[in-house]
Amino acid sequence: MVIPVSKNTESRLLKFVKPRKHSMIYNAVDCPGLTGSINKEKIVLTVGMVGKISSLVKGHFLFLEVARRIPDVKFILYGQHKDNTIEKLREKAAKNVEFIDHSSRKDLLELYRKSMIYAQLSYDESFGVSVIEAMACGCTPFVTSNGALPEI
């Protein structure tokens, strides 16, 4: 039995394997207390691990380019830093970009609540849990048309 997490993942998987049974089931998000804020701030948030490969796939450099073009808005890249890629990102970042190392679930939920926009600029995404969490907190999603993101 194969259980892909999106239609996109299912179609890609079925090109390589032919399971007897398969059924697509979207990931669930269990976040008690998720609510949005009426007083949103001019913040564009993205969440993801920062590393050599992950930063390329997750579109972190593209995120920095968008931030450079909109200097009156605060951009926050939140996530665990795996290697020195964070330093390369900091060098390229405009003054309106803030980097926050993963601290706590509570802090992340607070960022979702006060951010106006959630950006997921991935070049490939099997399922965007962070997008769902951000939407549950009232963020407007801004996503690429890659992978499963259009399904969400």
What portion of the residues fall into strands of 2 or more residues?
15-25%
Mean pLDDT: 84
Across the major sheet, the strand order is: 3-2-1-4-5
Largest sheet: 5 strands, parallel
The percent of residues in helical segments reads 25-40%
CATH superfamily: Glycogen Phosphorylase B
The residue ranges in which pLDDT falls below 50 over 5 or more consecutive positions are none
What shape does the CA trace take?
globular
- Under the CATH scheme, which architecture would be assigned? 3-Layer(aba) Sandwich
Assembly level:
single chain
Question: Distance between the terminal alpha carbons, to the nearest Å?
Answer: 24 Å
List the helices and strands and how they pair.
Layout: H1 7-13, E1 41-47, H2 52-57, H3 60-69, E2 74-79, H4 85-92, E3 97-101, H5 105-114, E4 115-120, H6 129-136, E5 140-143
Parallel strand pairs: 1-2, 1-4, 2-3, 4-5
GO molecular function, one term: glycosyltransferase activity
InterPro entries: Glyco_trans_1
Keywords: Transferase
